[in-house]
Amino acid sequence: MSASRNECLFCGKAGRLTKEHLNPRWLRRYVGLWFTNTSHSVSIRGIAISTGTLGPYQFSRGKLDRPGDPHSQALRVLCAHCNNVRMSALQERAKKYLRSMVLGNWPQLDERGQHLVATWAAMNTMVRETAHPPTQATSKEERLEFVNKMEAPPTWSVWIGKYSDVQSGVMNHVGWNEPGDIVDPRFNGGVCRQATGFVMGKLFMLTISMPDNVGDARQTMGDAFAQQYDLSLIWPTTPRFTTPQTVYDWRGWNLVAREIPRRRAGVAFRTAAEGNSL
To answer: Residue 247's domain spans which residues?
Structure first.
């Protein structure tokens, strides 16, 4: 089930929860805090059972629509041990790679570096999902497996790309189902697929998780998407890391973040929702 108000997102233990920042606090030194407010809108679009057609979007204000810069936003979802020990250790290991790319200095990521950055991106996505529970696609079992193995699940793909550092801190999250998906409403947020894009400084990150995103199909889709949009696929890891050259602006990265759900929308969506944060 989705984490309850007093249940840790990762280990599932009940008790007092601590705040986890969507963007790490060390990042502020490099990007600053420029905005006085964070805008967060969400929309849900369902399918009419009688006609089989998609209905209109229903818009509402999101949980992150509140005072403060996007880089200062946090969600109270982790126990102290997961936050200050497990995730803190992951953050420290991934930090040297993330910091370089946030500043626009791309290292040649070996497979260990790719693994660390992809693991951090998966962790961050799972936290961001809680900002809108109806589109929280990652199950409790997946999150527990994540914290035990400390790596992105095998049904995930992770890409990174270059960004122009305009409106740093924005994100776009889409959760959806496709025909044939079996989703118990007691689990996840009612969806089992997600695409989440977010930017930090000059770094653009994109995660995708789908139950059928496995094996050769996962690798083929990941490589093809990376080549088409000039991104670097880092999960699954590759021994042939290639630094992208395209620098995306705000409009460009937002379109890429929605591309895979958009491709499948014509025949796929049963329910869908998304959230934007700036």
So the answer is: 18-277
Residue 179 lies in a domain: yes
Distances (CA, A) of 201 to 27, 28, 99: 8, 10, 9
**Per the structure block, which two tokens stand in for 85?**
């020990």
What predicted TM-score, i.e. pTM, was given to this entire model?
0.90
Any domain includes 46:
yes
Question: Coil, strand or helix: which one is 148?
Answer: helix
What's the rounded Cα separation, in Å, for the pair 109 and 116?
10
Q: Is residue 11 part of a domain?
A: no
Kindly state whether residue 127 falls inside one of the protein's structural domains: yes
- Judging by DSSP bridges, how do beta strands 271-277 and 203-209 pair with one another? unpaired
Number of structural domains the chain divides into: 1
> What does pLDDT average to in each consecutive run of 10 residues of the chain (278 residues)?
71 94 92 89 71 71 90 94 96 95 94 97 96 90 94 97 89 86 68 93 96 94 97 96 95 92 59 40
The span from the CA of 107 to the CA of 141, in Å, is: 34
58 CB burial (10 A radius; 0-12, 13-18, 19+) = exposed
Q: Which two tokens stand for residue 138?
A: 């990652």
- Distance between CA atoms of residues 104 and 101, nearest Å: 5
CA-CA distance, 162 to 17, in Å (whole number)? 34
Give strand pairing partners of 43. 59, 274
In angstroms, the CA 257 to CA 263 distance is: 12
Indicate the length of the chain as a whole number.
Answer: 278
Query: Which amino acid is it at 135?
Result: T
